[in-house]
Design goal:
The protein is α+β, with helices and mostly antiparallel strands and 177 residues long. It is 38% helix and 14% strand. It comes from Streptomyces blastmyceticus.
Length: 177
């Protein structure tokens, strides 16, 4: 899917999300938890992340959801990580828990209760592109990052055409759930 179509589709998904004003990722999580009638907890990772490890993680267990994030980075980056994981949540992205075997490294009383683990580590796949677009759109709506302009869009297209950056390609359908 071309990035403009991806953007439009993801705008539809976030259209019903109650974005707090003033914005905070914590308040957004609280509102989503209330709307979904399912706890959504934020947990800071105990140590800074290193290259090759996820800076954020969505962990769904039978009774609640957790977003783990790198608390050793800038506040804006922390927000971005959290909102990216919210993107996975609102798009109903799925993963095979065994993909990263992260559940073995977490202290969970019953590992069988882990329904899914989505980690911020593979930026090229379709789910990651959707979650990244959701994060961008929410942060734009909150005034945290500027919306793209026609010029930035044209320059981005030129960069892609010249091979200086890869274009967004995805075929996944992001649907509110």
């Amino acid at each position: 899917m071309h990035w403009r179509r991806l953007r439009r589709r993801c705008q539809q998904v976030i259209g019903g999300i109650p974005i707090p004003d003033p914005f905070s990722a914590q308040e957004l999580c609280a509102r989503l938890a209330a709307e979904r009638d399912r706890p959504l907890r934020l947990l800071a990772l105990p140590t800074p992340t290193v290259p090759g490890t996820p800076s954020g993680l969505l962990l769904a267990v039978d009774t609640e959801d957790f977003i783990l994030y790198d608390a050793q980075t800038s506040p804006l980056h922390q927000e971005h990580i959290i909102v990216h994981e919210i993107g996975h949540l609102v798009c109903n992205h799925r993963s095979a828990v065994d993909d990263l075997e992260l559940h073995r490294h977490l202290d969970i009383s019953d590992p069988r209760s882990v329904r899914q683990v989505l980690a911020r580590i593979r930026y090229g796949d379709e789910q990651e592109q959707e979650a990244e677009m959701i994060a961008t759109l929410i942060l734009e709506a909150a005034g945290r990052v500027p919306a793209p302009t026609l010029l930035s869009g044209m320059l981005g297209g030129l960069e892609s055409a010249m091979g200086l950056r890869t274009g967004h390609r995805t075929g996944a359908s992001c649907s509110a759930g």
